Amino acid sequence: MNALLDVRDLVVRRGARTVLDGVSFTVAAGETVGLVGPSGCGKSTTAAAVLGLLRPDAGTVRFAGIELTKLRERELRPLRRRFQPVFQDPYGSLSPRRRIREQLAEPLRLHGPWSATEGPARIVELLELVGLDPALGERLPHELSGGQCQRVGIARALAGGPDLLVLDEPTSALDPTVRAGVLNLLMDLQDDLGIGMLFISHDTATVRHLCHRVLGLRGGRLTAEGRWDGA
Ligand SMILES: Nc1ncnc2c1ncn2[C@@H]1O[C@H](COP(=O)(O)OP(=O)(O)OP(=O)(O)O)[C@@H](O)[C@H]1O
């Protein structure tokens, strides 16, 4: 079976430093894979390479069999709805002056076709999918809590019907009680929608709880698969 995401021998250099040094892993359809490691080990760089936000110095990133690293932005654009990021800062990922429903309409329009009747209904559906009251669609980001904002971020990522979410420390900025709610939401989405997830975190316990498989990253290299010891 072909992997949904197949990363091979990824190398990223920053000046004289090798930030990723031959990183290889796969994520199968519907699988949640954790990537854990200490600060500066290259987790966000891996996410950026997978999302086509940086061009690696060597190696390949195949998504659904398509090699992404050689594609131009114009060629990547139609594929982006299928692999979507969720970032750490829930407020920073949203435009401060636009209502939540407008921010959800944006990816729906982008991935189109947008219809005046189905579009608003889809926004309600997305809000309900992430456990939010659809009435919150009328609010601005600063009128929501951090947890609610992160749920909107997840709803935006879901708008195009992705096959893969790349979640870079999605709950690190949240209070522990709110964090548990968002993690439960992610597990429900994984069960209900069968979306593949690459879940990046420095928090070993969270990753073990959520993921089918855990990869340890240290100094830009993967440690033995599934044997991250948290040290
Ligand atoms: N644009 C850049 N220019 C130079 N060095 C960079 C750049 N981006 C990242 N680095 C360096 O690459 C290394 C890996 O960074 P990265 O952000 O991928 O680590 P991380 O594991 O996500 O860390 P954290 O958990 O602190 O976010 C770090 O040493 C960082 O300083």
TrEMBL record:
The processes (GO biological process) annotated in the record are: transmembrane transport
Name the InterPro entries on file: AAA+_ATPase, ABC_transp_ATP-bind, ABC_transporter-like_ATP-bd, ABC_transporter-like_CS, P-loop_NTPase
Is Ion transport among this UniProt entry's keywords?
A: no
Gene3D superfamilies recorded: P-loop containing nucleotide triphosphate hydrolases (3.40.50.300)
Alphabetically ordered keywords of this record: ATP-binding, Nucleotide-binding, Transport
Name the coiled-coil region(s): none
Q: Which residues form the ABC transporter domain?
A: 5-231
Q: Which domain of life is it from?
A: Bacteria
Q: Does the keyword ATP-binding apply?
A: yes
Question: Molecular function (GO) terms listed?
Answer: ATP binding; ATP hydrolysis activity
Q: Which PANTHER family match?
A: D,D-DIPEPTIDE TRANSPORT ATP-BINDING PROTEIN DDPF-RELATED (PTHR43776:SF7), TRANSPORT ATP-BINDING PROTEIN (PTHR43776)
- Into which family does the record put it? Belongs to the ABC transporter superfamily.
Per its record, how is this protein called by name? ABC transporter
Q: Which organism is it from?
A: Streptomyces vietnamensis
